[in-house]
Specification:
The protein is mostly helical. The protein is built from nine helices and no strands.
Length: 168
């Protein structure tokens, strides 16, 4: 059993290394050799399906991405990064109502995790839900955010500038 575990972990590590090299197809192929029953999560507790979801998302295979994030959320239903990526995949598959619901749940559970809130702001702006966007924008402006720690802060700035010049 230990030998099997070592082989599975080796395949996982090779797959993750390929992910960091942005070779998503090869990474997915290597991760397909990782048994989901014997190795559902990595040593840090992140579901392996989370990584599959990220790679499918990068490959713009959003249905597969969503399925992988759904599988990951079965293992870690309240892991904020899994929830956020699942919401992004929901949006890319056209499930706007479910996207908004999930982003609001993340906002409630993790109020200082700003990336999903900025993504929700982007959904509101993209869907022309201006009143909701402006309300969320005002809420976010009252919080001291450190831009260097928020990957999508530029999106926040762009939306903020957009609404600053729009009559509502």
């Amino acid at each position: 059993m230990l030998f099997t575990r070592n082989i599975i972990e080796k395949n996982y590590l090779e797959g993750i290394n390929l992910k960091f090299k942005k070779d998503y197809r090869a990474s997915l192929e290597k991760l397909s050799e990782v048994n989901k029953v014997l190795f559902p999560v990595d040593r840090s507790g992140i579901p392996v399906d989370y990584y599959r979801g990220v790679m499918y998302f990068e490959l713009q295979e959003y249905d597969k991405s969503l399925k992988a994030f759904e599988n990951a959320s079965l293992i870690m239903p309240y892991y904020p990064t899994v929830m956020s990526n699942k919401a992004s995949a929901l949006y890319k598959t056209g499930k706007v109502t479910e996207t908004i619901t999930l982003y609001k749940e993340i906002q409630k559970l993790f109020p200082y995790f700003f990336e999903p809130q900025i993504n929700l702001l982007a959904v509101y702006a993209n869907e022309k839900r201006d009143k909701e966007a402006v309300s969320l924008l005002k809420d976010l402006e009252t919080v001291a955010m450190e831009p260097k720690f928020i990957k999508n802060y530029i999106v926040f700035s762009d939306i903020k500038n957009y609404y600053a010049h729009k009559d509502l």
